[in-house]
Amino acid sequence: xxxxxxxxxxxxxxxxxxxxxxxxxxxxxxxxxxxxxxxxxxxxxxxxxxxxxxxxxxxxxxxxxxxxxxxxxxxxxxxxxxxxxxxxxxxxxxxxxxxxxxxxxxxxxxxxxxxxxxxxxxxxxxxxxxxxxxxxxxxxxxxxxxxxxxxxxxxxxxxxxxxxxxxxxxxxxxxxxxxxxxxxxxxxxxxxxxxxxxxxxxxxxxxxxxxxxxxxxxxxxxxxxxxxxxxxxxxxxxxxxxxxxxxxxxxxxxxxxxxxxxxxxxxxxxxxx
Length: 273
Prior knowledge:
The protein is of the alpha+beta class. Helix content is about 35%, strand content about 20%. The chain is built from 6 helices and 9 strands. Strands 2-1-5 form a 3-stranded antiparallel sheet, with no helix packed on it. It has a two-stranded antiparallel sheet with strand order 3-4. β1 (about 110-120) and β2 form a beta hairpin. α1 (about 10-25) packs antiparallel against α2 (about 30-55), α2 runs antiparallel to α3 and α3 (about 60-75) packs across α4. The longest helix is centred in the N-terminal third of the chain and has 28 residues, at about 30-55. It comes from Flavobacterium celericrescens.
């Protein structure tokens, strides 16, 4: 699966055919094992999508694939151990977590809903507190994971949160001139990392520190110079006004580091500009 020309969909389809035969013969254990194989292939497909999208600077699309990867891995961990980095699962799990940390998204929309009709994905029976079908969410039946389907719901409101259940709902601004959605975030940290990584499974790691903004950081700069945090603002209107505050500093560990100058970036600041 580490090959760039690996056909993920073909592998998943072939496994699906084998699984259907197992289900037909009521071989539940075998069907579950095939589901595990399918899910591992799906995780690699999603992570490959993340890597390729980031290389193409399609950031929000990559973010959504990260969320799907996280959800898929969470489902798999209930039925398959990630010990010893088998099938690179530990590597992918850590890479997904680290990438989510360095993304500049900090504010999300969260819907408050009342679920008025819920169905079981296995038997399609309507579920309520007093009416259970017996199928357990997260368990595997006929080679598929059981989950609940919200058939009907009422939206009560929308809140702005920092730690949402649904990470897809990133907040973007609207361009006042065109009326279209505008991506106002800075992806400097992600770009910096992706320039250092050449291949999908190349080792890298992340350390995060809190660094205080000090007056000495700007002693060789003019107040009208562009701030060195890459916000695009002049120093006097940016970090110079925040002396004493702390910002996250990211240190990447890579196999073949380049000789580029260290990038001082505060992604939290960038989202506010």
